[in-house]
Amino acid sequence: MTEQNSNETTPIDVGFDLGGTKLFTLVRSPAGDETRSYPSGPDFGKEDLVRIWRETIDALPEKPRYAGCAICALIRGQTVVQCNSIPGLNGLSADDLEWKGTKPVFLNDADAALLAQVARVPGERNVVLAMIGTNIGMSYMMDGRICTGCTGMAGELGNVPFPFRGKILPLGEIAGGRSLVERAGMSGPELLRAVGAGDPKTTALLDEAAEILGMSLAWLIDLMNPEKLYLGGGVLLYAGFFEKTVAAAKRHAMEKLFDACRIERAEHANDIVAEGAIEQARRVGG
After folding, report:
1. 95-108: per-residue pLDDT in tens?
2. How confident is the model at residue 84 (pLDDT cuts 50, 70, 90)?
3. What's the pTM?
4. Helices (H), the chain
5. 122-265 architecture in CATH?
6. Residue 12's pLDDT is what?
7. Do domains 13-111+271-284 and 122-265 have the same CATH topology?
8. Per CATH, which fold does 13-111+271-284 belong to?
């Protein structure tokens, strides 16, 4: 039996996933994953994120190897440019979170999810991933390269305009989780139960959103010709929503392009964004 060198360290990685309704934290080590969840929302501020980041780093036995923070926001130059779900984060930079020699790598949450997904399934080169959560975001890879646009902020699927009930609204205000519960006039868990029980009113509301979301996926399929389109996010928990969205995409996309693309749920969706934040930190060596 070989005795472990007392100077050897056990690598620890930290990933944060800050969404519109909760902050999910992941501390990964050979001993296993430790996860926690905190409420976020519109009133969540910079000081809240800084406090939880410091508490997480303070609780570690040593400096983490890789540390990343994915946010439901436009990120440019390691700074939050625009966060509609949590306005108090606007202007936050990765430097603001540096603590005890650890500064996280910032990135958009959909980009993080795609990084984690392609790391799990190596070999895929033309992939789209859309997160249907509180709002809607997406990231895409073409010929093996994640495309971020000229300013690094590509993929704002939730802001694409669609006709809806006589108005032109961003997709996120039609099929995003926050808009759905607002139109239903109930909480997310209440809506989940109502749809699961087959309530006609809430089922019709979800059907309407799935149809338009499916149209948006048809656009992506026709424009980008991906081999795989992954869907993630809490809205997919509503009974039948995933299947109805895929059916709508099939109706509206070109047949040959749809047939060339497999639409699947993102694997291990609960931690995929935090895992992607760690993966990005690994890639940049942060």
Report:
1. 999 999 999 999 99
2. confident
3. 0.83
4. 46-58, 109-120, 172-175, 177-184, 188-196, 200-224, 241-252, 255-259, 272-284
5. 2-Layer Sandwich (3.30)
6. 96
7. yes
8. Nucleotidyltransferase; domain 5 (3.30.420)
